[in-house]
């Protein structure tokens, strides 16, 4: 088989399956199209949003091809969703509440007050948020930003804040509202496992994929992630309980805390003077993730459903519109009630039925194959698995309750992938025989089996050219048939890297603002996870830091573990070296921006003891790999 880097057309089995969906779902229902265009006021005249160095952060025209009819290389349901989500511009929700949609993965909402405007969820990147604010001002006047509100702790809802407020506003007492626990979760999610999450997010959102009929067409929740500068201005006002009422610039808000739903720190907002309900990311026009494919803590669908019931009880009788930080609003009190009720039933059904089957002895894989959704829910477009899926959400529920082990002792101590692959391939008659038989499965349209079996060949021999090509072709076909946008992106990214080699990770969330927002505990924990354990078994190093702008702290590396003690408890520990410095200098030396010798020469830094011990300690820290292999060992 000759190796090619080009994408292929849809195989007959995929084309037939995609055509069949047109008969299964109500494609003649145009309510979403009307809602998505309602209130449109205009969009930007310049299609490219650029960074300060001229790089393209976002292209508003990238998805223009979606206006064409759906080809065989795309699931028509996902194509429909992507066309709706790609629509960009400024939209009026109700008088005084506006949304900029299609400028990033998420929406930015602007609520007009007496003097200026409250910005809710300022996107991922400063560049896209600034462009969104400029669009709003072009239509509504040059109103100052009088407050910022983060609905939850995911980066697409706070990362662009530096595009709407600068250092002057941030330091002038401007209110920044967030749910209790926001800062801890925003920092920990993006720093502790941030490298691995970013690499997997590159697959999930497909930012490196070409946009087009055979490439990236969206991610279901939004189109993709912008690639600009990420920032964070810490909150100045925490929302600590449901029913808490705050007024900012004359805007009255009643809050509902919803921890443990779509994010560990999240809230909904009711605007009683405008009969409007902001559902954050708790009710959007798709089935959401209970466990994101990029990786995260498993979310609780039982709690999620209960908070949706609470939102219905508290707010729907006084709400004429519900909107969220993704997708388009729902207008009309009865429609809002139906929408929220169906979203509630969606998560409750997945939870309850997974538990029912789990208690009958079915495993996560078996439950995912057996799960069928009620026809009434499946008929509603907003319940479809464009972002989350019934398949991987049921596995998430299983994981939440029972963990990774399915109870079968044969799965308790399996060989890791590469070692198992070599044995599988040998048992199956060698790589050439596996590939030969897999080609027949490919011709039969059994692409799931092809990727499962050829994966063994690749993990036994990652340079096997025919296996790489066949695996890429099969992954591509699975992508073409996926209703789920993130599944499509994962499949197509796997095909792309098998054909062209690693394409890297387009984004990083370890931004300076996030590092600066870390507590001392979080900062030391982030270093501890970088210790190369086996190389550090025999090390025994203790360093005391006297912080001129904080509590003293002691780091000790022993038994391959980096522990820390802060405050008064550190006073009795005898160190190898003591260093007096400020928090900024501590960051620069421990993150490798400054060497210990350079640090010692800084004004205001004092060293007592053997400075080489700090150098030795830093030598035990490894560097995360942002481009680690996924489809090969």
Which geometry do the CA atoms define? Answer: globular
Number of helices: 22
Structural class estimated from helices and strands: alpha+beta
Q: Spans of 5+ residues with little confidence (pLDDT < 50)?
A: none
- Rounded to an integer in angstroms, the radius of gyration calculated over CA atoms is 26 Å
Number of strands: 21
The main sheet orders its strands as 1-4-5-6-7-8-9-10
Strand content: 15-25%
Distance between the termini: 22 Å
Helicity level: 25-40%
Overall average residue pLDDT: 96
Oligomer: single chain
Main sheet makeup: 8 strands, mixed
Structural write-up:
- It is a single chain.
- By secondary structure, the protein is α+β, with helices and mostly antiparallel strands.
- It contains 22 helices and 21 strands.
- The chain has an eight-stranded mixed β-sheet with strand order 1-4-5-6-7-8-9-10, covered by helices on one side. It has a six-stranded mixed β-sheet with strand order 11-12-13-14-15-16, covered by helices on one side. A five-stranded mixed β-sheet has the order 19-18-17-20-21.
- α9 crosses α12, α10 packs antiparallel against α12 and α14 packs antiparallel against α15.
- The radius of gyration is 26 Å and the shape is globular.
- The mean pLDDT is 96.
């Amino acid at each position: 088989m000759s190796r090619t880097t080009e994408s292929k057309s849809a195989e007959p089995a995929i084309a037939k399956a995609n055509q069949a969906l047109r008969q299964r779902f109500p494609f003649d229902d145009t309510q979403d199209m009307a809602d998505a265009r309602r209130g449109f006021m205009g969009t930007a005249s310049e299609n490219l949003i650029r960074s300060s160095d001229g790089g393209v952060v976002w292209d508003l025209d990238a998805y223009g091809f979606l206006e064409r009819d759906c080809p065989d290389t795309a699931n028509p349901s996902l194509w429909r969703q992507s066309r709706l989500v790609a629509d960009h511009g400024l939209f009026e929700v109700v008088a005084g509440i506006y949304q900029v949609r299609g400028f990033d993965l998420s929406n930015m909402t602007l609520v007009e007050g007496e003097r200026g405007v409250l910005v809710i969820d300022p996107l991922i990147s400063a560049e896209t948020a600034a462009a969104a604010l400029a669009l709003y001002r072009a239509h509504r006047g040059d109103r100052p930003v009088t407050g910022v509100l983060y609905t939850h702790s995911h980066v697409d809802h706070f990362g662009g804040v530096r595009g709407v407020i600068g250092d002057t506003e941030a330091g002038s007492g401007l209110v920044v509202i967030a749910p209790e626990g926001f800062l801890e979760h925003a920092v920990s999610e993006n720093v502790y496992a941030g490298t691995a999450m970013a690499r997997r997010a590159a697959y999930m959102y497909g930012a490196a994929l070409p946009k087009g009929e055979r490439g990236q067409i969206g991610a279901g929740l939004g189109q993709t992630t912008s690639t600009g500068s990420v920032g964070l201005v810490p909150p100045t006002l925490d929302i600590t309980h449901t029913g808490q009422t705050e007024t900012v610039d004359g805007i009255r808000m009643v809050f509902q805390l919803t921890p443990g739903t779509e994010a560990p720190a999240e809230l909904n907002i009711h605007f009683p003077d405008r009969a409007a309900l902001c559902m954050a990311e708790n009710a959007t026009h798709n089935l959401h993730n209970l466990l994101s494919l990029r990786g995260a803590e498993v979310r609780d669908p039982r709690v999620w459903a209960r908070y949706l019931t609470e939102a219905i009880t508290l707010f729907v009788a006084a709400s004429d519109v519900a909107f969220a930080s993704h997708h388009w609003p729902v207008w009309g009190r009865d429609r809002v009630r139906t929408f929220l009720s169906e979203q509630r039933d969606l998560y409750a059904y997945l939870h309850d039925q997974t538990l029912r089957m789990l208690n009958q002895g079915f495993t996560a894989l078996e439950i995912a194959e057996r799960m069928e959704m009620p026809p009434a829910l499946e008929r509603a477009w907003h319940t479809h698995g464009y972002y989350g899926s019934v398949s991987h959400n049921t596995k998430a529920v299983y994981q939440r309750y029972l963990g990774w082990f399915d109870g079968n002792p044969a799965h308790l101590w399996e060989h890791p992938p590469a070692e198992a692959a070599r044995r599988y391939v040998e048992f199956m008659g060698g790589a050439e025989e596996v590939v030969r038989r897999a080609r027949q499965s490919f011709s039969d349209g059994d692409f799931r089996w092809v990727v499962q079996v050829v994966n063994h060949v690749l993990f036994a021999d990652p340079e096997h050219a025919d296996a790489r090509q066949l695996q890429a072709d099969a992954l591509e076909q699975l992508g073409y048939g996926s209703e789920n946008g993130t599944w499509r992106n994962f499949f197509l990214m796997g095909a792309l890297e098998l054909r062209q080699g690693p394409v890297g990770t387009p984004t990083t969330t370890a931004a300076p603002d996030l590092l600066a927002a870390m507590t001392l505990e979080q900062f030391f924990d982030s270093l501890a996870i970088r210790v190369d354990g086996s190389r550090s078994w025999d090390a025994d190093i203790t360093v005391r830091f006297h912080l001129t702008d904080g509590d003293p702290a002691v780091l000790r590396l022993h038994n391959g573990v980096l522990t820390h003690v802060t405050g008064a408890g550190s006073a009795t520990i005898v160190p190898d070296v003591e260093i007096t410095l400020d928090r900024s200098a501590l960051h620069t030396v421990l993150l490798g921006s400054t060497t210990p010798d350079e640090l010692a020469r800084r004004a205001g830094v004092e060293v007592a003891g053997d400075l080489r011990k700090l150098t030795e300690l830093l030598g035990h820290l490894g560097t995360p790999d942002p481009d680690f292999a996924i489809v090969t060992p």
